[in-house]
Design brief:
Strand order of the largest sheet: 4-3-5-10-6-9
Organism: Nocardioides simplex (Arthrobacter simplex)
CATH class of the largest domain: Alpha Beta
Strand content: 15-25%
Keywords: DNA-binding, Transcription, Transcription regulation
Family: Belongs to the LysR transcriptional regulatory family.
CATH superfamily of the largest domain: Periplasmic binding protein-like II
Protein name: LysR family transcriptional regulator
Oligomer: single chain
GO molecular function: DNA binding; DNA-binding transcription factor activity
CATH topology of the largest domain: D-Maltodextrin-Binding Protein, domain 2
């Protein structure tokens, strides 16, 4: 529900399929037709799918479009159910979501913001974990209702795929690198990394070792906001992944994707014996959206 797809785009696609043209869909939704058309075409580009084909004076769904619209309708139905459930939930009982500081900002907040834009307000408490194992423990012991992870974890919890995030290299603008970087390029630039001994650093060190890369460590910090600050001030580059593309370019910073692209698989964790409606309905929305993104 972040940079690659949003709920409004799903509404536009479903309405276009139901009304047979973007003009009729825009009129039914009380939006400008050019805005609806741009949103639908942008979604097609982002997902690399052709959803509609011209059919005489109107448009018709392609086979891929038929599958997408069926899934999109299910997502919109689940969001309506979640809206009703959230409205009925006691305001004194927050939904507790465990995630690393990285995923709190990169995943949890965009999810909640996307839901809020469409009338789903969830009283949420974000609980920090140093990595996926600690997040899983917080859920397993009942201290959190849901957990968000970006690395594999061995657990008896229900693990639901909810999409993936592209890993990019953020560097000072003066850094001499190609438009798309390779893993070998990581050894050519100073990096800001999590502190030695942390779970995040251990994961990155294992990744560097697997790729035969010896990183040049310029700054060590576990504070996420300091990573991009180090880049902005020209000190180092950093690896960054998020479901959202930054809406406002950072001054003096260039974001580069990898060739080939690198993604982190995202999962949500939940206790199988927890029948509480709110987390289960939110989990279903995340599962369905993840299915749309993965095709």
């Amino acid at each position: 529900m972040g940079g690659r797809m949003n709920i409004q785009q799903l509404r536009y696609v479903v309405a276009t399929a139901e009304h047979g043209s973007m003009t009729a869909a825009a009129a039914a939704l009380f939006v400008a037709q050019p805005a609806l058309s741009r949103a639908v075409r942008q979604l097609e580009r982002e997902l690399d799918l052709t959803l509609f084909a011209r059919d005489g004076r109107g448009i018709a769904l392609t086979p891929a479009g038929e599958t997408f619209v069926r899934r999109a309708r299910a997502v919109l139905h689940s969001i309506a159910t979640l809206r009703t459930t959230a409205a009925a939930a006691p305001s004194s009982a927050p939904l507790v979501i465990a995630a690393s500081p990285t995923l709190q900002a990169a995943l949890a907040i965009p999810i909640l913001a996307g839901l809020r834009e469409h009338g789903v307000t969830v009283h949420t408490r974000l609980l920090g974990g140093s990595g996926s194992p600690e997040v899983a423990d917080l859920v397993a012991t009942g201290r959190a209702d849901l957990g968000l992870c970006d690395s594999a974890v061995t657990t008896d919890l229900v693990a639901v795929p909810i999409g993936r995030a592209e890993v990019r290299l953020y560097s000072p603008a003066a850094t001499d690198l190609p438009d798309r970087v390779t893993l070998a390029d990581l050894g050519r630039v100073p990096l800001v990394l999590p502190t030695a001994g942390s779970a995040r650093r251990a994961t990155l060190d294992a990744f560097f070792a697997e790729c035969a890369i010896t990183p040049e460590v310029a700054v060590e910090t576990d504070e996420r906001h300091a990573w991009l600050a180090a880049v902005t001030h020209g000190i180092a580059s950093c690896l960054w992944h998020s479901v959202e593309t930054p809406r406002i370019p950072l001054p003096g910073v260039v974001a580069r994707g990898f060739d080939p692209p690198i993604h982190r698989e995202l999962t949500a964790l939940h206790r199988a014996d927890d029948e509480t409606p709110l987390p289960r309905h939110l989990l279903e929305v995340l599962r369905q959206v993840g299915g749309l993104l993965s095709g």
